[in-house]
Amino acid sequence: MKLIISYIFDFVKLFVIETGIFGYRPKKDCKAPLAAAAFTAAYILAFRLTKNNIGAQALVHLLYLMTNVITVSLALDGRKKLLVSFAVYCCILLFDDIFMTAAADILGITYHEADMDTVIHYTTMFISLVFYTLVTFIIVYMRKRKGENKIDLRESNSLYFFILSLSVIVMYVLGVSGKIGPFVSDGISPFMLLAAAIIILIAVIIHTNALKKYYESSNHVNEKIKESQKAYYEGMLARENDTRKFRHDINNHVLCMKTLLNEGKYDEVGEYLSSIENKTEKLTPTVSTGNDLVNAITSDLMNRYNNVRLDWQGHLPAEMNISDMDICVIFSNILDNAFTAAAKCETGNVGVRIAAAGASLMITVVNGINEPIQLRASKLVTSKPNKRNHGFGVMNVKECAEKNSGKAEFSFDEKHFTAEVILPNAIAL
């Protein structure tokens, strides 16, 4: 029973850290509780089968606690969750030992005596939970205050999480074997402090690496924004130049049509009017979304996919509580996927509907498809040739929507693909 309660405490610690510091979103299914129940039942059975073997029971205890990594991973949605859970849990186990050693040192008893005492054991677990929760709150608060709440620590190189896990395991082995110094002793040893310092150092490296990737990603998005805006404004300048030429020649056009009418050449007048109509269509802006950045994105796509017809309904508000980067991520990914798919159809169409309800913004994009949508593990698979460098659009849109307290959903049938993004409090009132 004691270990089962420890299992629950460890689950809560992991859950708090990963949802708070790493920003994972909880899943709304019953996989995690079912897994926890199955692991607990397996532990009870294994514990009874090994009751005469202390070494085997110790291994069963450890394996049962480590299944928390799988349980928490099933409770969360996102990338690298298994690796991150394992690394974080290794750190939790190490710091919990430091807490227990500190408690034993304060009470003047041995680590083993403190761990076997039920009151001390549970009190220490509760204090460690409060500590992890407080640290998580402080880190999240400081990141938000510095404007770093958008930094995704999961974007850090996977190698650093592996090194973190390996470091803790190595320190445990060396400490327990006594080759460097006792890991668990009557007091906190210099080795334990060294282990904690190494973990903190690697944690700083993970944050720094994530920060670097964040700014690299920001620069990439900003470059994309600049390129789209450049193409958009160059198109506007070209249309303005054509408009001036058309205005300059309008009197000549009118004179020519009058002459044709006087001569009774009505068919030629009709052809002349059609040619003028074609010219005026080219002078009209391609689409007006209400947002210059989205105008640039749509204009760029319409130029690249001139066989696709865009039907845009609604306007984006002039003032929004969403950064330009997030707007670019959402619209560039959704529209790029929509245009790419629609271009493969005989009559390519993309429909966009923008609707507002109070401060909430709803974006719906529907496009035609000419091939079945592929799913792998209930996730969409890109149909683009280079699958290694593509296939992240849907994921990025979902994460961007969630970051702004919204959600993104994708659905499809045999002929259409639909993307829906809901962003509460997106409109500045």
Strand content: 5-15%
Name the strands of the widest sheet in spatial order.
3-4-5-9-8
Total number of distinct structural domains:
2
Order of helices and strands: HEHHEHHHHHHHEHEEEEHEE
**SSE class:** alpha+beta
* Terminal-residue CA separation: 54 Å
Rough outline: elongated
Helix content: 55-70%
Uncertain spans: 385-391
Protein architecture, described:
This protein has 429 residues and is of the alpha+beta class. The chain folds into 2 domains: 2-150 and 165-209, no CATH class; 288-429, Heat Shock Protein 90 (2-Layer Sandwich). Helices cover 64% and strands 11% of the residues. It is built from 12 helices and 9 strands. The chain has helices at residues 2-20, 31-49, 54-75, 81-107, 111-116, 118-145, 158-177, 190-262, 266-283, 292-304, 324-342, 393-403; strands spanning 25-26, 76-77, 308-313, 348-357, 360-368, 374-376, 379-381, 407-412, 416-423. It has a 5-stranded mixed sheet. Helix 11 links the parallel strand 3 and strand 4 (348-357). The radius of gyration is 31 Å and the shape is elongated. The chain starts with a helix and ends in a 6-residue tail after the last strand. Residues 385-391 have low confidence and may be disordered.
Features:
elongated, 64% helix, 2 domains, five-stranded mixed β-sheet, single chain, 9 strands, 429 residues, alpha+beta, two-stranded antiparallel ribbon, Heat Shock Protein 90
Any chance you could write out the topology, listing elements then pairs?
Blueprint: H1 2-20, E1 25-26, H2 31-49, H3 54-75, E2 76-77, H4 81-107, H5 111-116, H6 118-145, H7 158-177, H8 190-262, H9 266-283, H10 292-304, E3 308-313, H11 324-342, E4 348-357, E5 360-368, E6 374-376, E7 379-381, H12 393-403, E8 407-412, E9 416-423
Parallel strand pairs: 3-4
Antiparallel strand pairs: 1-2, 4-5, 5-9, 6-7, 8-9
Helix pairs in contact: 1-3, 1-4, 1-6, 2-3, 3-4, 4-6, 4-7, 4-8, 7-8, 8-9, 8-10, 10-11, 11-12
